Amino acid sequence: MASEFGVSASAKLGYSIKQDVPSFAVLLIFIISLATLWLLRVQGLLRTHGSISSIYEYVYYHGKKIYKDAPLHETPSIFAENLQGRLQTGYRWLSPAPGEIRLLTKLYLQETYSAHPITKDEHIHAVKVWRKLFWRLLYARVVLARSIGAKPAGESVKNSSQAG
């Protein structure tokens, strides 16, 4: 009877979106993966760092988001020292960050101002340290952003004693 009206057997069964869900899922995963890789590259994690200076640029870029009131004229050593102070929050996962910042700053200063060049092993080690520090700095931004609204415990006691 369907052939009498010109309707094919496949049209009679109808179209179901369920047929395309697996291909849409694969496409979506592929697009999200590409976007993530692009974002990590732009943020400095997946970039090929030919020098310690290129690593330090990203340390400064991400560190500046944590240590927002850093003066422009601050030396790398002072910037690193103040950033390390901001990262000493008591969170266990952030505890290695000050040492990593210290190491990368030392290598940056050595590469920039010293007559002794950075060895290939030091460069490889710096890249490994940067890959760990990258995630710590992102974590620190999240943790510190949430704690901005909360007052430290000592501050509320100090304010109440001054009020009286």
Shape annotation: elongated
Q: Give the low-confidence spans.
A: 151-164
Largest sheet geometry: none
Extended strand count: 0
Q: Which series of helices and strands comes N to C?
A: HHHHHHH
* End-to-end distance: 93 Å
Helix content: 55-70%
The fraction of residues assigned to DSSP E strands is: under 5%
- Briefly note the structural class of the backbone: mainly alpha
As a whole number of angstroms, the C-alpha radius of gyration is 26 Å
Mean pLDDT: 80
Counting DSSP H or I runs of 4 or more residues, the number of helices is 7
Number of domains: 2
Characterise the protein shown here.
The protein is mainly alpha-helical. It is built from 7 helices and no strands. The longest helix has 28 residues, at 120-147. It starts with 8 loop residues before the first helix and ends with a helix.
Write the layout of secondary structure elements.
Blueprint: H1 9-13, H2 21-42, H3 52-66, H4 76-87, H5 97-113, H6 120-147, H7 153-163
Question: What's the gist of this structure?
Answer:
This protein has helices at residues 9-13, 21-42, 52-66, 76-87, 97-113, 120-147, 153-163.
